[in-house]
């Protein structure tokens, strides 16, 4: 099972791929210095795709120095479970 994540900036979302097929996304709104995650959706549950998607999206955002506004319940929950990412979140 190969899982990859990429930023589809034209669609304003990070996308997760399972064995080359798009399997979900995390939509966002980008503003200067901040990114607001609004919705996360995956086609297959129970394979850790949503967690892999958000983990890699947050790593990318952290590298870019953006503050995360977690409007999406899944992203908000992920940040709560990972206090090591507290510095990226706008709480």
From TrEMBL:
Pfam families: Acetyltransf_CG (PF14542). InterPro entries: Acyl_CoA_acyltransferase, Gcn5-rel_NAT, GNAT_YJDJ. This is N-acetyltransferase domain-containing protein. Residues 6-90 form the N-acetyltransferase domain. It comes from Saccharothrix australiensis.
């Amino acid at each position: 099972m190969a899982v990859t994540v990429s930023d589809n900036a034209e669609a304003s979302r990070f996308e997760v791929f399972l064995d080359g097929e798009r399997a979900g996304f995390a939509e966002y709104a980008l503003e200067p210095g901040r990114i607001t995650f609004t919705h996360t959706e995956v086609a297959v549950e129970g394979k850790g795709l949503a967690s892999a998607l958000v983990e890699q999206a947050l790593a990318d955002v952290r590298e870019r120095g953006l503050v995360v506004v977690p409007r999406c319940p899944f992203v908000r929950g992920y940040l709560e479970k990972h206090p090591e990412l507290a510095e990226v979140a706008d709480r």
